[in-house]
Amino acid sequence: MRLRGSITVENAVIVPLFVIITVSLIMLDLYIHDNLIAKSTALKLGVKAEMELSDYAVMSGADRNIVKKNICDAGQIYAAEKTISMRNVRLEVQDGKKMVSVVCYGNTPDMISRITKKHNVSAGADITVNSPPEFIRLINAAKNIIG
């Protein structure tokens, strides 16, 4: 019986290639997951900031900064709990009379950054500040026009 070495040689090439592809796909999935969590965090905190900072004329600058710091702290805790590989999570909340912007930043491990060619994760959300009384008037006017 003659043993052939071709199976060993083929497996020496195929198995490592299969492992590299599998690990790369898992790392890419982790990067996509963390990107989605960062975007979700930015959107959730944008809505929360819009609700808490909607009384623009009433709140003082110091009170607004305290609210923004509390929102950023809550977002950092949320993002740190939900992300798998993102590190050094930080959030920024910027507000104005018409818009609230929230940006979530983080770093990915070196192994993921080699695959995705990106070392930083950044996701933002811009939320337009609503005026509920004005919105209700517009809806009622639309109802009256439609009939």
From TrEMBL:
Q: Transmembrane: is it a keyword of this entry? A: yes
Q: Give the residue spans that cross the bilayer.
A: 12-32
Provide the alphabetized UniProt keywords.
Membrane, Transmembrane, Transmembrane helix
Protein's name in the database: Uncharacterized protein
Taxonomic source organism: [Bacteroides] pectinophilus ATCC 43243
Give the organism's phylogenetic lineage.
Answer: Bacteria, Bacillati, Bacillota, Clostridia, Eubacteriales
